[in-house]
Please model this.
Amino acid sequence: MPVNLTHAEMFAPSHNLSMKPSISKIIVLAATVLSTLLAPQWTATGIAQTSQECFDCHADPDLVKDDPGGKEISMYVDEKSYEASVHSRLQCVLCHSDILDLPHSEEGLRTVRCSSCHLEEATQFLDSIHQRSLRRGDVFAPDCKDCHGKHAILSHKDPNSRTFRGNVLNVCGACHEGIREQYEKSYHGWLVAGGNKKAPTCYDCHYSHRIMLVEGKPYRIGVVNQCGHCHKKYYETFSDTFHGKMTALGEVIGAKCFDCHGSHNIFPVRDIRSTIHKQNLLNTCRKCHQDAPENLITYITHADIHSPRFPVLYYTNIAMVALLIGTFSFFGIHSILWLNRLTVDWASRYFFRKRK
Model:
């Protein structure tokens, strides 16, 4: 029997006749997803807005606009810097999503929301001291662009990046100038400037996005662990002291690392500028112990009770541990024997009454 085919069916590719409907749907769905993610966004009139179209205007160094206060703001974007950035593969309209036609309006444009892609970092930032300052209307409080830049954002592993560990001090120091000067002169700052990758910089102690209020209890307790990441030996000996025990119990009272060593102006103990130098140590202790006698500085802060180098503490610790083990062992065995005797006595009485 002859088969009558339409004109479309006659010239359709042969594989379409045998393609299963499910496979066809998958291909259509995949094409839709790819076109949404990779292709430029489309305007209401169907005109594609590529980054190149944006650079037709914004590559002009003389392009400016007036802010509400009448101050000129440059709208120039360096195309080469953008192409070298981590966002080079993204179209401009993916961030500036409210721009629907060209030329676009200069008024009423929404602020770019980095949280659309960087949700984890944005969530951490929500509870930071910087975000709280922004909510209060502090015009000097930093947001994403103040630390990372706008269009020339580089990976934090790139030595040219603003957030590279060797450069981050310049970013934080733009607002915290006094602290920056202290840190640059400190031992940590000297190590970082020399390229030491293990030396702590701003975000190692204060984090990158969830920056906490330093006067708050969570930071004062948690910073001890931060110091302990690098100074493990001193962290262990600190934990054995009264100050360490109070900290482990979650108490704010009791000296923490920065109370004795300082925060940003940390120097080696032999440096006269150090707060724990022998000439400065008594004044450091008197910040908490106002009437402390001069012999208080003979107190060994980081003595290791497990090392024979400190014989008095070492053997006292052994004697105390032996006393505790002996005491608990003696009374433990005594209690077990006594329990056994009571059990035998109870059982004998029970069977004796039963026989009667």
